[in-house]
Design a protein that fits this description.
By secondary structure, the chain is mainly alpha-helical. It has a 3-stranded antiparallel beta sheet with strand order 1-3-2. The longest helix has 20 residues, at 89-108. It has helices at residues 14-27, 30-40, 46-53, 57-69, 89-108, 110-113, 123-127, and strands at 44-45, 73-78, 81-86. The protein has 7 helices and 3 strands. Helix 2 (30-40) packs across helix 5 and helix 3 packs across helix 4. It has a single domain, classed as Winged helix-like DNA-binding domain superfamily/Winged helix DNA-binding domain (Arc Repressor Mutant, subunit A).
Length: 142
C-alpha cells in the first residue's frame, strides 16, 4: 500500500494563519480583551481606559503598545492626549461572538466549566457596554 503523500493545499494561506495566530495571542489576555471591548464602544484616551479598568496608566500603555504593534489599535494625538481606537470593528465583533458562544456553552454545561448557574453572566450582561456598567464590574486587579 502506498503511503499517503502530503501536499500543501494552495487554498491554505500559511502566512495569513501565522498573522492571525499572532494577533490572537496578543488579544488572549483579559485586560486586553476589556480594552478591546471599551474601544469597541468608541475611541478613548489612555487615562479614560486606565480609570475605567482600574489599571495604572503605565500598565494600560503597555497593553495598548502591544495591540498597536499588531495593528489592532491605532493611536492619534489630540492636543496633549493620545486617543486610541480599533483599526477595525471586526476585532470587537469577533471577540464578542467568541464570548457569546462560550457563555452559551457554559450555560448549557456549567459543571464542565466549574461554574455554578448563578455565576454565569446573562446574555443581556454580555451585550451591555462596559461604559454603562458600574465601575466595579469592569475592575481588574493590576
Amino acid at each position: 500500500m502506498k503511503a499517503a503523500t502530503r501536499r500543501s493545499s494552495p487554498a491554505i494561506d500559511r502566512e495569513g494563519f501565522e498573522l492571525e495566530a499572532d494577533s490572537i495571542r496578543v488579544m488572549a489576555n483579559p485586560k486586553r480583551l476589556m480594552i478591546l471591548t471599551l474601544l469597541g464602544e468608541g475611541p478613548r484616551t489612555v487615562t479614560d481606559i486606565s480609570e475605567r479598568l482600574h489599571l495604572s496608566i503605565q500598565n494600560t500603555s503597555q497593553h495598548l503598545r502591544l495591540m498597536r504593534d499588531r495593528s489592532i489599535v491605532r493611536a492619534e494625538r489630540s492636543g496633549r492626549e493620545v486617543v486610541y481606537s480599533l483599526t477595525s470593528p471586526v476585532f470587537f465583533e469577533a471577540c464578542r461572538l467568541v464570548r457569546s458562544a462560550l457563555l452559551a456553552e457554559a450555560r448549557a454545561r456549567p459543571a464542565h466549566f466549574g461554574w455554578s448557574g448563578q455565576s454565569i453572566p446573562s446574555q443581556e450582561a454580555l451585550e451591555e457596554p462596559l461604559s454603562n456598567r458600574g465601575r466595579r464590574s469592569a475592575s481588574v486587579p493590576a
